[in-house]
Design brief:
728 residues, OB fold (Dihydrolipoamide Acetyltransferase, E2P), 3 domains, seven-stranded antiparallel β-sheet, 52 strands
Length: 728
């Protein structure tokens, strides 16, 4: 009986841990989910046992200790304060963990203080130039939001898995890869190796070496130049006390690391207001232990602020680019729903609670952040557009699923969060889609039964009122102002993508033009990243000439087309005209510089990442990256230093996936092998099952030679072409 209980405990710990680690590694809001970089295992401790035998070790250890002794051990972590009950309103101290019984200790090795550098194709200056160019579509003017693409007028930055690709984009005829920033390598140099150790009765045993998968979560451009990179490293196994970490990396105009900071938790969202980065991370239990890096100083621990009695769920990290300080605020609740950062840096965050939604105002002063006010409203928020600040009034749209999916509107004093007014039961049994506050008017799209577009007057915050509404099939997921009297909606009608131009007559919308993809006379459907309710708006691009650049995938009887649709928006004439589609497989974003468009495909389904197009002729004028060499595995390994960080194609034979991530590419002539991360070949799963015939797949890989955390060579693949395959 006792053995069965021990076996059950060991099985639960291992299965839960590895499942949580695998699940967390695949989370990415608003962007593709490629295979990220993985840190190799930490070295064994002297006399500590092997972490590769986690299952057998923990089961044998449990038998010797006995069930009662195994369940009475506590959680600890080096470099942190001992476990204790959750504090209440404790300021300027590291957060603490609750008393728990997991018999695991996290050991952290000493890390090097050497400054990590980017893997650079050549010495490159990435300072922007004046001119007309696109930027990320954001909610608050002057407050940047993280996206997978950034554009500074001369260079385009593309986040893809563990790396950031930097392209020289101007002039478009010279479009080329300028640099590759290996973000995983930077994080591995900053984060020390870790391992989980079982401790009891004076005995210690390493049960698991910790590996961390690193991926780029988003990019932001500071006004001072350079680049802010948000990254996440996800630990495996996913057992307490391990947590994902959110990293803020600041690169200068030469792509050198200037500063770095991290907090525990998975990234949810972020903003860049002036010189202040505000990052939101989600965490459940565990620790909030900020780590910072400064050149010449190395890794340091930074102060945190803890608020609330419940286990920490949300971490707000504040980082000043001017060197003014780093802080972390921990907020209790179920989880973050939405965040709004004003141009002056005031941060409003909506948290889930049993009562509904808790609104918290956090202000950043000279001495750090403070919680200035809070309020609770019924219902919940699903997207950032449901929070808005206007002339000293915070406006909030909520939906209450428990009461028939009721939609409500509330207004609050922006400084005290005292309720000023409300408008309840705007509609019921409808879901919220498009939301846009334009001055004193709210435009609200719901969808399920009558699918209305509401116009609501908030000029008197104490007495909001409905001006009118428009009923129509389908819905708009995103609403964008066009001049002072126009509104553009992008959404769905059935399975088609729909673009609608509205004219605002006394603030009430009236549709004047609609465009469908595919056209109404052709069967089929379409998809666009703009349909993502959380971050789809960041894929919206409008040029000063009134051209909408809309990433699409259109499916019809004649096949399918992927790329960026170019739509002329004539607000004065009330017309929408499809000029054409800039074909680019896997394109998820578009931007522009002067009269040229750039389509960008960060996923692994496109060998060509960036294409440049004339917006006058819609003809392609450049594409990148161009491989510098076509190599075999042996040729790459022989000249690895020469090709480091440069785009190459490598031909070889796929010989199976590796434990812990990645796969092996072999040279059939010499039997030399190379580890590959990132994209992988399309191999039938039946051939990967135990006992199946060995798979031989000849492939051509486009990628960047990089190094693992242990310095070993690897190829980071951005595209894999299967030449032929078979089994034998």
């Amino acid at each position: 009986m006792q053995d069965s209980r021990l076996i059950a405990l060991a099985a639960v710990l291992l299965i839960l841990g590895f499942a949580l680690g695998f699940t967390a590694a695949r989370l990415h809001a608003g962007t593709p989910a490629p295979t990220a970089g993985q840190q190799p295992e930490a070295p064994e401790a002297a006399g500590g046992g092997s972490g590769s035998q986690a299952g057998g070790d923990i089961l044998g250890w449990a038998r010797r200790l006995g069930w009662d002794r195994l369940g009475s051990l506590s959680l600890d972590r080096s470099l942190s304060i001992p476990p204790a009950p959750w504090p209440v309103a404790v300021r300027h101290v590291a957060a603490t963990a609750p008393a728990v019984v997991e018999p695991l200790v996290l050991e952290t090795a000493v890390t090097s203080t050497a400054a990590p550098t980017a893997t650079v194709v050549e010495v490159v200056e990435v300072g922007g130039a004046p001119g007309v160019y696109g930027s990320t579509n954001v909610q608050v003017e002057g407050v940047d939001e993280p996206d997978i693409v950034e554009n500074n007028g001369t260079h385009v930055f593309l986040a893809s898995g563990r790396i950031v690709e930097v392209y020289r984009a101007w002039p478009p005829s010279r479009l080329e890869l300028a640099a590759v920033v290996d973000v995983a390598d930077i994080v591995w140099r900053l984060a020390p190796p870790e391992r989980l150790v079982l401790e009891a009765g004076g005995e210690r045993r390493v049960i698991a070496n910790v590996t961390r998968r690193v991926s780029v979560w988003g990019l932001m451009l500071p006004e001072r130049g350079g680049l802010v990179v948000l990254a996440v490293d996800t630990p495996s196994p996913g057992l307490p006390p391990l947590q994902p970490r959110t990293w803020i990396l600041v690169l200068d105009q030469q792509l050198r690391l200037r500063d770095a900071w991290s907090v525990e938790g998975f990234p949810v969202d972020a903003r860049l207001a002036g010189d202040t980065v505000v990052a939101v991370a989600s965490i459940w239990g565990g620790f909030v232990a900020p780590l910072g890096y400064r050149p010449g100083v190395g890794v340091e621990e930074w102060p945190a602020v803890v608020v609330g009695e419940a286990p920490v769920s949300t971490v707000l990290a504040f980082y000043r680019l001017d060197g003014g300080g780093h802080w972390a605020v921990s907020l209790a609740g179920t989880g973050p729903q939405a965040v709004y950062v004003a141009a002056d840096g005031r941060t409003y965050i909506a948290l889930s609670t049993r009562e509904g939604t808790r609104l918290v105002l956090v202000e950043l002063g000279e001495e750090g952040p403070r919680v200035a006010a809070e309020a609770v409203v019924p219902g919940r928020l699903g997207k950032q557009w449901q929070l808005d600040l206007y002339r000293g009034v915070l406006r909030v749209v909520t939906i209450v699923p428990e009461e028939g999916w009721r939609v409500d509107l509330y207004t609050f004093d922006a400084d005290t969060l005292e309720e000023l007014g409300s408008l309840r039961n705007i509609t019921v049994r409808e879901g919220i889609h498009g939301v846009r506050f334009l001055g004193p008017v709210l435009y609200l799209v719901t969808f399920r039964n009558i699918d209305p577009l509401f116009a609501i007057d908030l000029s008197d915050p104490a007495n909001p009122r409905v001006l009118g509404y428009l009923e129509a099939p389908g819905f708009d997921e995103y609403l964008h102002p066009i001049g002072e009297e126009g509104l553009l909606g992008v959404g769905r009608e059935g399975v088609r993508l729909r673009v609608t131009l509205y004219r605002l007559e006394k603030a009430v919308p009236r549709p004047v033009a609609r465009l469908y993809l595919p056209p109404e006379d052709k069967p089929g459907g379409a998809w666009s990243p703009l349909l993502d309710p959380a971050r789809g708006h960041r894929a919206f691009t409008m040029t000063p000439a009134g051209l909408l650049l809309l990433p699409v995938r259109v499916y019809s009887e004649g096949g399918h087309v992927e790329g960026v649709a170019v739509v002329r928006v004539d607000a004065a004439g009330g017309r929408l005209e499809l000029l054409g589609v800039l074909e680019h497989r896997g394109a998820l974003r578009a931007t522009y510089i002067e009269a040229y468009a750039y389509t960008l495909a960060p996923g692994f389904d496109a060998a060509l990442r960036v294409r440049a197009w004339s917006l006058e002729t819609l003809e392609m004028v450049g594409e990148a990256p161009a491989p510098l060499a076509n190599l075999t595995v042996s040729q790459l390994l022989a000249g690895f230093g020469e090709y480091l960080g440069k785009p190459v194609t490598v031909t070889g034979v796929y010989t199976g996936f590796m434990r812990g991530g990645g796969w092996l590419l072999s040279d059939p002539e010499t039997d030399e092998t190379l580890r590959v991360e990132g994209a992988s070949p399309a191999v039938p799963l039946v051939l990967e099952r135990p006992g199946a015939p060995r798979v031989y797949v000849s492939v051509r890989v486009l990628g960047y030679p990089l190094r693992g955390a242990d310095g070993s060579p690897l190829l980071y693949a951005v595209h894999v072409e299967t030449l032929k395959w078979g089994a034998g």
